[in-house]
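Table S2 (continued). Query chain:
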Amino acid sequence: MKTKLLLCVMVLFAGIAFNSCKPSDEKLQQEIEAGLTALPSSISSEVKKGEVTLSGIVDSDGLKADAERIVSAIKGVKSVVNNIEVKLPEPEPIINSDDVLKTTISSAISLAGDAYKHIVVDVKDGEVTLTGDVKKLDLQKIMQIVNEAKPKKVHNLLNITQ
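Corresponding output:
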């Protein structure tokens, strides 16, 4: 009986000693935050029972992978759930030069037929101004032609006829 009691006490102390060797979630959180400060982005983390969830937004897949690698290397981290989003910067819009815009639009309009011969195209600083007369049914096609040339802005001063 004494042997069983002694064995139970030893198992209890071993369990306590084993659990006390593990870092607490708070300590892990501090280590993770310190490790993530090396990255040039705002990444947040949450620790529950040694399992880490990363979240935030970065501008490259490399930064996302680096964050996971840094956190995974910390002693006491059991697993990492990487919910970090990668948002690439928006590309600058392509705006053609005035000469290219005027030539492209004027050529496309003249190729579209005689119905558009009364349309005048003027371009200044990437902005297209349309003047003249156009039938209501043809307006959508004209606007499509102009917008395909990628101007900065379109000023539609066309007189619409039936």
